[in-house]
Amino acid sequence: MSQALSTALSSPSNRHRVQFHDQLTEDGGEQSLLEALTVGLTDSPRWISPKHFYDHRGSELFDRICQQPEYYPTRTEESILEQSVEAIAERVGGDIDLIELGSGASHKIRLLLDALRPHHYVGVDISRDFLLESTRRLADDYPWLAVHALCADFTAPFTLPGLEGDARPVVFFPGSSIGNFTPREAGELLTRVHDQLPPGGGLLIGVDRIKDRDRLEAAYNDAAGVTREFNLNLIHRLRDELGAGVSPEDFEHLAFYNEAASRIEMHLISQRDQSFSLDDQIITLAAGEHIHTENSWKYSREGFEKLAGHAGFTLRDHWCDDAQLFDVHYFERPA
Ligand code: AVJ
To answer: What is the residue with the minimal CA distance to atom 3 of ligand 1?
Structure first.
């Protein structure tokens, strides 16, 4: 390779050219971690929202979950995107902006960028530093792409940033992250996305399917214990960020499929009688008491398409793997 060419290829021409929009702090109204955890831990039964898993360490642990052999959703969704990328590009069409909700490490989007060739990419995530790192890497690797990072909590109403030009926005919501919402909340989120899109705007969304209990439960109880560590990260945050007198050794990880509700549940179980103070309150946990930390809803193909239909979307296409473990749907807001 000539000197000039190798310089051109390695030149970081797009380096750090990420436009950053922070709706978490701009809003000001955001509930603090202390307030949020205090509300749930003084409730009965006790709970913590799964969005609090994702500090920097939690985002890294989630990334490692996705690499575990038992955790089929990531691998399966990636294989669907890889296999069907041409069909997806054809269906979605050209002249688009891509907005990724819960962009995390932004691996999956890489499978689509070369085929979809969007004008802008907007990564939306709650974990600010993680979002900045991953969008900067993306900007470095795709010099032709205008990269934006939007730090926002999409469990609350949020606004898509205005982008230059008149490309059609397409929202990419991978990983079955929609599963963390109750079906009613999921419907509300879909409605909000629908209402923010112009007619013809798209939604490409990955959803984990209802399947046999063994496969589902294995995915949330990996042998390497990464999901356990991810769940226990909430205790790390209580201790390290909020100064609560708790220790990860005093809690155990529980994950099981609640078939009647079509959802995986994760809990932390107190291993002994214990109490600690939080925001001037004393929290007392009995041995065996649960803190409910996550629900992950699973859908039939038809069930999810019905939910999106109620939000106003029209189904345009659908792709899945041969074993039908995972669905990727493409919807549009009708003109
Ligand atoms: C990011 C919500 C899709 O429910 O499978 C993975 C989170 N929790 N292992 C999921 C998760 C434990 C994940 N979602």
So the answer is: 177
Phi-psi label, residue 77: left if phi above 0, alpha if psi -120 to 50, beta otherwise = alpha
pLDDT at 156: 79
Which SS3 state, helix, strand or coil, does residue 315 take?
strand
DSSP string, 152-193: --TTS---PPP-SS-PEEEEEE-TTGGGGS-HHHHHHHHHHH
**pLDDT of 21-51, one tens digit each?**
988 865 444 578 999 999 999 999 999 999 9
* Chain segment 147-200, per-residue pLDDT in tens: 999 999 887 777 887 788 889 999 999 999 999 999 999 999 999 999 999 999
pLDDT in tens, 222-235: 999 999 999 999 99
Residue-level pLDDT at 25: 66
* pLDDT, position 28: 46
Report the C-alpha gap between 206 and 99 in whole angstroms: 14
Q: What SS3 class is residue 85? A: helix
**Distance from Cα 199 to the centre of ligand 1, integer Å:** 31
Pocket test for ligand 1, best of 222, 294, 298 (most atoms within 8 A of CB): 294
Residue 156 or 262, more confident: 262
Backbone angles phi, psi at 243, to 5 degrees: 70, 20
The CB density around residue 321, as the number of other CB atoms within 10 Å, is: 18
Residue 223 is encoded by which pair of tokens?
Answer: 């042998």
**Structural contact between residues 210 and 327, judged by C-beta atoms closer than 8 angstroms:** no
Separation of alpha carbons 252 and 2, rounded Å = 58
The number of residues in the chain equals 335
Distance CA 57, CA 49 (A): 17
Compute the distance between CA of residue 196 and CA of residue 38 in angstroms, rounded to an integer: 33
